[in-house]
Amino acid sequence: MVLGVGAHLRYKAKELALSEDVSVSYPFDCCLSQPCDLIPYQEFSKWFLPPFYSLIFLLGLGGNLMVIAILLLDRAPLLGTDIFVFNLAIADILLVVTLPFWAIQAMHGWVFKDFLCKVLGSMLKINFYASALFLICISFERYLSIVYVIRMYNRNKRFIIYTALLVWFVCFLMTVPDFVYLTAEFDSRLNGTSCGLVFPQHRTKMWKIALIIINQVVAFLLPLVAMIYCYFHIILTLLHSKGFRKHRALKVILAVVVAFFLCWSPYHLVQFISTLLQLHLLEKDCQWEDNLDIADIVTTSLGFFHCCLNPLLYAFVGLKFRNKLLMVLRRFGCINQKFWNMHFRASSQSRDSSWSESTDCSNTIF
């Protein structure tokens, strides 16, 4: 992975994390004579990352492929939030398909080519940003469609496609430094080759702090603020409206915000502490840094687990998506007519217009 996104490449950048007046290339503790031991980090990553990344890979790939399949097999055109959910699923898939490579690195070192290090590291980072930015797009689309009753994306499909393309382009630009500085090289301290960020020695601290800040702002603060603002106003609108099942809508909205916060806030807290260490605002200590490295591994993995939750939060909990899923299954003969009739009678009692119970209520506001 890349600096500020994955724990098991963090040590590579740590090797150059010295003050600019020190011309050596290995990590220091409080004294300049002894480097910190990387064995605790290495041993923990060997037994923790492979099984956990394998689990995220299987769940994330299966769930997001299901979302894409239902969207493409459904006869209705993609409109509004559907397009953003489609792009979110693509971003999550492209992120999780890189995880087996990092799991292999945790066990055996980087056994692939240097170019593949750059490609996979950059691909992970692009989709790391894309997942966060598409959450912002989904939040604002729901905000406009419910609070202001503006279905602008449905009326202008070209606009939403351009928005999605802009998101991908911005993510690509923000990943250029990763592609430039990602390198696979032999690490004598770990006795193996590793793929990580290696910056010019005189600019190491500047690049590390800059990338951590960008990660925290773009991938956490902006989505969190956007979701809180949009869903707060959506809740107020729903509370003042009538004729829908409010409690279900509010539960889904709460689940979206809480899941994002619980999955990503621990990771960004660890990155914030790492920034304080780089700025020498906290005293460096090998035991402290060992614990921070292990916390980085755990919190990064927890953040990636959010890719598995996205299909549940933005698709499967929605009545409309369940109807789409059943329609596809019915077309392929996977469910019988009796079950379909029972479900249709139950679902016809409520009207839905988007991908969650929160937007299922939007028709009552028109």
From TrEMBL:
TM region positions: 52-73, 85-108, 128-150, 159-182, 209-232, 252-274, 294-317
Main subcellular location: membrane
Keywords linked to the UniProt accession: Angiogenesis, Cell membrane, Chemotaxis, Disulfide bond, G-protein coupled receptor, Glycoprotein, Membrane, Receptor, Sulfation, Transducer, Transmembrane, Transmembrane helix
Domain G-protein coupled receptors family 1 profile stretches: 63-314
Membrane association type: Multi-pass membrane protein
Database matches in InterPro entries: CCR1-9-like (IPR050119), Chemokine_CXCR3 (IPR004070), Chemokine_rcpt (IPR000355), GPCR_Rhodpsn (IPR000276), GPCR_Rhodpsn_7TM (IPR017452)
GO cellular component, one term: external side of plasma membrane
Pfam families: 7tm_1
KW Protein biosynthesis (keyword) present: no
GO BP annotations listed: angiogenesis; calcium-mediated signaling; cell chemotaxis; immune response; inflammatory response; positive regulation of cytosolic calcium ion concentration; regulation of cell adhesion; regulation of leukocyte migration
Subcellular location: Cell membrane
GO molecular function, one term: C-C chemokine receptor activity
Coiled coil ranges: none
Transmembrane helix keyword on record: yes
Family: Belongs to the G-protein coupled receptor 1 family.
Protein name as annotated: C-X-C chemokine receptor type 3
Species whose genome carries this gene: Laticauda laticaudata (Blue-ringed sea krait)
